[in-house]
Design goal:
Length: 305
C-alpha cells in the first residue's frame, strides 16, 4: 500500500532561473527554493512547463534539479518532471532524478507526433523503468501536449506499480473524479489549472501543482487549508482573488512566466532572471499590468491570510 500523504498539499511549479547571459543561475535556484520552502508549501514540481523544460538541454535540467534538491534539504516533497521529446533523454533524466533521491518523477506524453495509446504507455513505462525505485506521475496537459489521458490508457498505466498519480491540467474537473475513481484511494491526483484549485479539491484532488503558486503561495495555501476543513464558502473569495490576478497578468504582452518572475522580483526581492527565447520577455507597456497585479496580491494576502 502506497502512502500518498506526501503528495497532499500545495506544490508550486518551479521557475527556471537564469543569469544575464542566459545560463542556469544555480545560486538563484537555491535562493528561490529556500524562499518557497519557507512559505510552508508541501512540495515543489521541478522541470515542468513553468520551468521552461522544453527549451533547456538535458545537462541544464540536471543542474537545476541538483541545486533545487540541495537547497530543499529534504524538507519538502520533490516531483521532478523528466520528459523530453525522445525516450533516451527522458530515461537519462529519470535515472539522474532517482539518484538525487526525489520523491517522484513525472512526464507529459511525447509532443508533436500524435502517438497511439500503446506507444504513449511504452514511453511512460520505459521512463519509469529507468527509475525503478521512484514513484511515477502522469502529466496530463492535452491543450499543450496534444494527447489526452483516457481512462483505458490510465488502466494500462496502473498495471505499473510505480504509477502513483496524475498531475491533471485538463480543464474539466470531471477528469479528476474519473482518474481518482480509477486509481483508488492510494492514487494521487493533483489539480493543475490554478483557476480551479478549489473546485478540483472539492471533487477529490489531493493537492495542487500550479504555475502561479510561486508568486502568491499564501493564497493557495489558505484555499487548501479551508477546503480541507470543508469551509468552501470561505475559500471561494480567495480563489476569486487569485483568479483575478491571473486574468490581470494575462493582459501583458510578455510570457506569463516572464511576468511572474518580475512580480517575484518586485514583491519578494528575488531575481531569477527572465525567460528563454523564443518566449517573449516583458514589454515596457506591461509594467502597469505587473504593478497592478502585485498590488492585487498584496491586498488579497492582507485580507485573507
Amino acid at each position: 500500500m502506497r502512502d500518498i500523504t506526501k503528495y497532499r498539499g500545495i506544490f508550486p511549479a518551479f521557475y527556471a532561473c537564469y543569469k544575464k547571459d542566459g545560463s542556469i543561475d544555480t545560486e538563484a535556484v537555491e535562493i528561490f527554493t529556500r524562499h518557497l520552502v519557507g512559505k510552508g508549501v508541501k512540495g515543489l514540481y521541478v522541470g515542468g512547463s513553468s520551468g521552461e523544460c522544453i527549451y533547456q538541454s538535458v545537462n541544464e535540467r540536471k543542474l537545476l534539479l541538483e541545486h533545487a534538491v540541495k537547497a530543499a534539504e529534504g524538507k519538502v516533497t520533490i516531483i521532478a518532471h523528466v520528459a523530453c521529446n525522445n525516450t533516451e533523454d527522458s530515461c537519462e533524466l529519470a535515472r539522474h532524478a532517482e539518484g538525487l533521491g526525489v520523491d517522484a518523477i513525472a512526464s507529459i506524453p511525447p509532443i508533436y507526433f500524435h502517438l497511439p495509446p500503446e506507444a504513449v504507455a511504452k514511453y511512460w513505462n520505459d521512463i519509469s523503468d529507468a527509475a525503478p525505485n521512484t514513484d511515477f506521475f502522469i502529466y496530463n496537459i492535452p491543450q499543450l501536449a496534444g494527447v489526452s489521458l483516457t481512462v483505458p490508457l490510465l488502466r494500462e498505466m496502473i498495471r505499473n506499480p510505480r504509477v502513483a498519480g496524475v498531475k491533471n491540467s485538463s480543464t474539466p474537473t470531471q477528469d479528476i473524479q474519473m482518474f481518482k475513481a480509477e486509481g483508488g484511494k492510494d492514487f494521487a491526483v493533483m489539480n493543475g489549472p490554478d483557476e480551479q484549485l478549489l473546485s478540483g479539491l472539492v471533487i477529490g484532488a489531493d493537492g495542487g501543482i500550479g504555475g502561479t503558486y510561486a508568486v502568491m503561495p499564501e493564497l493557495y495555501l489558505k484555499i487548501y487549508e479551508l477546503a480541507g476543513k470543508g469551509e468552501y464558502e470561505a475559500a471561494r473569495p480567495i480563489q476569486y482573488a487569485a483568479d483575478a490576478v491571473i486574468y490581470k497578468v494575462c493582459e501583458a504582452k510578455g510570457n506569463l512566466y516572464a511576468v511572474m518572475k518580475e512580480i517575484l522580483r518586485r514583491r519578494e526581492g528575488i531575481d531569477i532572471g527572465g525567460v528563454r527565447a523564443p518566449l517573449p520577455e516583458i514589454a515596457r507597456e506591461d509594467m502597469p499590468v505587473i504593478l497592478e497585479a502585485a498590488e492585487m496580491i498584496d491586498r488579497a494576502i492582507a485580507m485573507y491570510c
